[in-house]
């Protein structure tokens, strides 16, 4: 079975732990990893790709030391290896210009403001991973219990 990964990035450990906790219902199906910087996330993404694994979803904070979340998401979106990787910006400090850049340059699929609703983040993660599987042409059945059935229905009809 293919290995699917969800990567969450936030420089504040407490926030990162909260995101990982909110996504924990997916742990039985996907590898959910936490990174504390954009550089750490990029290194992990390269490592996973080299191992033949998939990066289905990348969720990133915006304001971080070094590279911002928008810079990270833009870099990933411009890498042909990750053309189908779904991207979410999760932040409480993005300006209007940052948000526009995230949409236009990073081509994010979703934007969540902090504090977010755990159920909404989990539901969106499920739907984005489901969309990723279809976009990549991968068999969705091994993960059926973790996916968004409405996306499956929409994609199959």
From TrEMBL:
GO BP, sorted A to Z: phosphorelay signal transduction system
SMART domains noted in UniProt: REC (SM00448)
Chain ranges passing through the membrane: none
Domain of life: Bacteria
Residues covered by the Response regulatory domain: 5-129
InterPro entries: Bact_response_regulator, CheY-like_superfamily, Sig_transdc_resp-reg_receiver
Pfam entry (one): Response_reg
Chain positions found as 4-aspartylphosphate: 61
Record keywords, A-Z: Phosphoprotein
Name the UniProt record assigns to this protein: Chemotaxis protein CheY
Protein source organism: Photobacterium ganghwense
């Amino acid at each position: 079975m293919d290995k699917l990964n969800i990567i969450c990035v936030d420089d504040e450990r407490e926030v990162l732990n909260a995101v990982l906790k909110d996504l924990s219902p997916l742990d039985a199906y996907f590898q959910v990893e936490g990174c504390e910087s954009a550089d750490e996330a990029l290194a992990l993404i390269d490592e996973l790709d080299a191992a033949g694994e998939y990066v289905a979803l990348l969720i990133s904070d915006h304001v971080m030391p070094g590279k911002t979340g928008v810079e990270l998401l833009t870099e990933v979106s411009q890498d042909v290896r990750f053309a189908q990787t779904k991207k979410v910006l999760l932040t409480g400090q993005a300006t209007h210009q940052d948000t526009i850049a995230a949409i236009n340059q990073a081509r994010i699929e979703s934007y969540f403001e902090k504090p977010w609703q755990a159920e909404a983040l989990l539901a969106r993660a499920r739907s984005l991973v489901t969309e990723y599987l279809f976009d990549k042409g991968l068999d969705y059945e091994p993960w059926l219990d973790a996916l968004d059935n409405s996306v499956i229905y929409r994609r199959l009809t």
